[in-house]
């Protein structure tokens, strides 16, 4: 089956510092792919390159459209939503206002209200807190809001950077269970960058291990989880 996203020979750099040295990966329609690797390996840079936020070269084919030279706003319009590390919600606006802003690139109207209702079905906690200022939410709720806001774009692909960052273990489980629900029931494809390799491999269908800007290993998540060097270096057992 043809993948939704097909990346070949992706290189990226900050000034003279080359961070990605020609990586290849695919993301299947409706599936979750995880990108694992140590600090500084180039995971965040990969997401930034896909969004056109860092100088890069190679080919990025998104359902037949070449994204390599596109501007970030075009990439968003084509159906890729980015949930950066640190979440970036508007802290002085309410939960519901944040969700409404997520639909900014789309037409106004009843569609937006309908989408907000749908997002509340995945995140009942956000509905309970719909009138609360985003800055007063717990870390887990802010992460849920960041994902909810990205979903307001009705993306085909969501790029998530460290969704577990700074969250208590129980909350992390809750966020990941919701991500699985979103994949299974909304058919949104995801690329997840995660330090918590064990959890990411539980959720993911496919996995890639990136080491100093190169893909060191790739395959079905279940296989990568059984790989001895992954277990020693990233899973700790
Ligand atoms: P982490 O989990 O620590 O975020 P990562 O795998 O996501 O790791 P990147 O953030 O992609 O790694 O960083 C890859 C390399 O690029 C690192 O050496 C980092 O210092 C460098 N780098 C990242 N952002 C910039 C920047 N804005 N300017 C210069 N160098 C950068």
TrEMBL record:
Keyword Nucleotide-binding (UniProt): yes
SUPFAM superfamilies in the record: P-loop containing nucleoside triphosphate hydrolases
Boundaries of every ABC transporter domain copy: 5-237
Family, similarity comment: Belongs to the ABC transporter superfamily.
Organism listed in the record: Zhengella mangrovi
Name of the protein: ABC transporter ATP-binding protein
Alphabetical list of Pfam families matching this protein: ABC_tran
Keyword field: Amino-acid transport, ATP-binding, Nucleotide-binding, Transport
An example Gene Ontology biological process: L-amino acid transport
Family annotation (CDD domains): ABC_TM1139_LivF_branched
InterPro entries: AAA+_ATPase, ABC_transporter-like_ATP-bd, ABC_transporter-like_CS, BCAA_Transport_ATP-bd_LivF, P-loop_NTPase
GO terms, molecular function: ATP binding; ATP hydrolysis activity; branched-chain amino acid transmembrane transporter activity
